[in-house]
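Q: Hi! First time doing this. I have a protein sequence and I read that you can turn it into a structure. Is that right? Here it is:
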Amino acid sequence: MNSRIKRRVLIFCTGNSARSQMAEALVNRFRGAQWGAISAGTHPAGKVHPFAIAALKEIGIDASRARSKSIDELRDANFDLVITVCDSAAEECPLWLGQGKRAHINYPDPARGTLDDFRKVRDDIRRRVIKYLDSFEPESIDKGKQCPCAASFFRVGKEVNRWTFRFLVPVARIV
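A: Yes, that's right. Below is the predicted 3D structure, encoded as structure tokens:
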């Protein structure tokens, strides 16, 4: 890969209020020269959780202007990689019309927890997502590891949850 080409990653979960927001900010801060990250939710909460903003601020990232976004806003965008960060989003198998490999890296939902819960998720996202992006190669997705609902939802031309699949998208589950 040409090191001057910046790859794009979509990071999404259900509410786009905590995990995906923190992942977007962390990727843009620590790998912004190589990756451009954007986050979205299948059912956006409408706001970013104050503890997510606070946890990011503690490490020098200003997320005060972040907003909860719907996956619908990005339906025509293309990404090199699409990462789900919660089991709910991965299991719903939101339909993605654009290009891009898919990976699933699950994190517990800190939304009903304390600031310390958000710190733990933030630090785990920083460690695991950044490590995955650093080792990412488009061919590295294991096509044998699909999300459980792939067989029923990933069908050519099948309408599900306001989206239409054009192709089968393999999902790698990252531990």
